[in-house]
Amino acid sequence: MRLIWHAETRHPTDLDDAALADLYAFGKGPVLRANFVSTLDGAGTGPDHLTDSINTPADNRVFAVQRRLADAVVVGAGTARAEGYRRARRRDGPGPTMVVVSNSGRVPDGIRERRSGDGEAILVTCAAAPADNLAAAPEVLGAENVWVLGESEVDLTATVARLRSAGFAHLLAEGGPTLFSSLLAADLVDEVALTLVPTLVGGDLTRITHGTGLDVALRGRHLCEADGTVLGLWTVDRL
Ligand SMILES: NC(=O)c1ccc[n+]([C@@H]2O[C@H](COP(=O)([O-])OP(=O)(O)OC[C@H]3O[C@@H](n4cnc5c(N)ncnc54)[C@H](OP(=O)(O)O)[C@@H]3O)[C@@H](O)[C@H]2O)c1
């Protein structure tokens, strides 16, 4: 993989693992970064409605680098269910805490199990979730890992504030499109990492945002390329 453009004028260069980690490092303060993959025709999944069918080795590499750098991964329950999310692991120990956001309060199956070496998992839900789900979640995750924030729906601003006060400064939001759009609408996203994979899939598949209209301006930070996959990082421009 090579760096092809950087806002602070680094020269084009090949990227070893250390250089890639440096490029994708979170800043010193609190940051919520979203990470997505898209085809050239804007699909956020392949025809099977999963991301595995469009991922490339370069995308997998940058996905893994960012997971290594994050304090917590924030994911919508829909993505956790569809993509079979498990708790995270790193080569050298437990991975970042997996924070699942769900109005229904239903713990995704893959998150229930805790294998040796797995990181923690937190479910963020709301008071309007069905009572049986609200009762079941603490039995699976532990009461301290079930956060009820919001009445009729999850209060995302309160969620991010609580994650930060719990020490999770660097948040990596891995989707999906519904949660991403809500985070953007609440002005909670600081950075967007996007991989463009060199394929066209047609059809009527989800984009990386979904639902409400948005108007979010971004500034470029860098672009990398490997075998036709283009990977970039943008900062949300809050004027
Ligand atoms: N291209 C990519 O990089 C990428 C990344 C992630 C996912 N995806 C794809 O996106 C598809 C899933 O899309 P999606 O929009 O359904 O994903 P999603 O946002 O992960 O899931 C929606 C579900 O998550 C929970 N949720 C989302 N936003 C919420 C909010 N603001 N407050 C409370 N709960 C919230 C709700 O769960 P409950 O129903 O439990 O209330 C909701 O039904 C899959 O096909 C997946 O493969 C693509």
Description:
The chain has two domains: 1-9 and 31-70 and 174-239, Dihydrofolate Reductase, subunit A, CATH 3.40.430.10; 82-169, Dihydrofolate Reductase, subunit A (3-Layer(aba) Sandwich), CATH 3.40.430.10. 25% of the residues lie in helices and 28% in strands. The protein has seven helices and 13 strands. It has helices spanning 17-23, 57-69, 77-82, 109-112, 131-141, 156-165, 177-185, and strands at residues 2-6, 13-14, 31-39, 72-76, 89-90, 93-94, 97-101, 121-125, 146-148, 170-173, 191-197, 218-226, 229-236. Strands 2-1-12-13-11-3-10-4-7-8-9 form an eleven-stranded mixed beta sheet, sandwiched between helices. A hairpin with a 2-residue loop joins strand 12 and strand 13. It is globular and about 55 Å long. NADP nicotinamide-adenine-dinucleotide phosphate binds next to strand 3, helix 3 and helix 7.
Topology summary:
Blueprint: E1 2-6, E2 13-14, H1 17-23, E3 31-39, H2 57-69, E4 72-76, H3 77-82, E5 89-90, E6 93-94, E7 97-101, H4 109-112, E8 121-125, H5 131-141, E9 146-148, H6 156-165, E10 170-173, H7 177-185, E11 191-197, E12 218-226, E13 229-236
Parallel strand pairs: 3-10, 3-11, 4-7, 4-10, 7-8, 8-9
Antiparallel strand pairs: 1-2, 1-12, 5-6, 11-13, 12-13
The structure holds NADP nicotinamide-adenine-dinucleotide phosphate.
Q: Give the H and E element order.
A: EEHEHEHEEEHEHEHEHEEE
- Domain module tally: 2
**Radius of gyration of CA atoms, rounded to a whole number:** 18 Å
Q: Looking across the biggest beta sheet, what order are the strands in?
A: 2-1-12-13-11-3-10-4-7-8-9
Look at the structure and give the mean pLDDT: 96
Strand tally, please?
13
Gross geometry: globular
Helical content, roughly? Answer: 25-40%
Low-confidence stretches: none
Question: Could you say what the CATH topology of the largest domain is called?
Answer: Dihydrofolate Reductase, subunit A
- CATH architecture heading of the largest domain: 3-Layer(aba) Sandwich
Largest sheet properties: 11 strands, mixed
CATH homologous superfamily of the largest domain - what is it?
Dihydrofolate Reductase, subunit A
Classification by helices and strands: alpha/beta
Named once each, the bound ligands are: NADP nicotinamide-adenine-dinucleotide phosphate
**N→C terminal distance:** 33 Å
CATH first level of the largest domain:
Alpha Beta
Q: Please report the number of helical segments.
A: 7
Work out the strand percent: 25-35%
